Each structure stands twice: as structure tokens, then as C-alpha cells.
Amino acid sequence: MNQIGDGVLLRRIGRGDRRAFEAFYARHAPWLTLRLRRRCRDPELARELLQETFLAVWRAGGSYRGDGEVVGWLWSIAVRRLIDAGRREQVRPQTVELPDETLLTWSPSAEEEAMTDTYDARLEVALRSLAPELRAVLQATVLDGLTIREAAVVLGLPEGTVKTRALRARRALRAALS
């Protein structure tokens, strides 16, 4: 299909010819990828734009009328996708920086204040003796009442790691309290 012109390939694509689409893609994807990468610094976004462009070709290949070069037509599709991506980025919520740590002051929550009186001194000492990562898992699963899956998401850890740390924390607490 290397000898077949782009106009013929597009008409075949319009009729659902996958081989024509593959030949058209092989012919134009390399240069289009390079042009998109020059306009867009994010390689992942460039790949998405390439896919969206060729999806549009697959859907609308039969609508090409042969006015001008196929390269210009294809680039105009890609540019519209690039502009749309830029617009989506502008309306996406922006990340807000955290305030300076000196402005943050720690104060116990109402739950922590209420629970302070219920824990005896031995338990408090045992909890403080735990490694911070074990204490964080216990906080999430016991005090906050999260499931292992929810704790894994909150802590940014694999579920297996959360399970292992919870088991280690309980064993350490039992040993410290016995």
C-alpha cells in the first residue's frame, strides 16, 4: 500500500478498511509525533494527542475531499486536539501550595482529647514505643476505623504492607502490655 496515495487511503478508511488505516498511520505517525512533541513538552500528552488525531481520522477519513494536502489536513486535526488539551489544562483546578509550617500549629482533635482519659498510662507508653510507620497504620485502621484498602490509599502504601505493619504493631503492643 506504499504506492497508494493518501486520498485513496482516506476513502478506504472511510469505508472501514483497517489495512488502509494501518498504512496511513505508518506513513504519517512518525512525523506527526515529532511535531506534537515540539509543541507539547509532556510526552504522555503528545501520545494521547496522536491517538486522538488518528481516532478522528478513523471516524472521519471518508469526509476528506482532497482540498489541499493530506498533511495539512492531518496537522489541522492534531492542532485542534492540542488547543483543546490546552483549554482543558486552563480550567483544571490548580494546586495550592501548603502554608508555611510556622503558620501551622498542632492542637489535639476533640476525639483525641476525649480518648486521652480512656487510655491508661501503659497503653500510651506502648503506643509511643512503636515505630512511626507502625503507629500510623494503627491510627488509620483502629482509631480512624479505616479498612486495610482505605488505609493503604490514605497512607500511600500497598495493601500487603499495611497488613504486615498492622500485624507487627499488634504484636509489639501485646508484648509491651504483657
Automatic annotation (TrEMBL):
Domain of life: Bacteria
Boundaries of every RNA polymerase sigma-70 region domain copy: 24-90
GO process terms (BP): DNA-templated transcription initiation
UniProt keyword annotations, A-Z: Sigma factor, Transcription, Transcription regulation
Limits of the RNA polymerase sigma factor 70 region 4 type domain: 122-173
Residue intervals passing through the bilayer: none
GO function terms (MF aspect): DNA binding; sigma factor activity
Family: Belongs to the sigma-70 factor family. ECF subfamily.
Database matches in NCBIfam families: sigma70-ECF
Protein name per its UniProtKB record: RNA polymerase sigma24 factor
Protein species of origin: Polymorphospora rubra
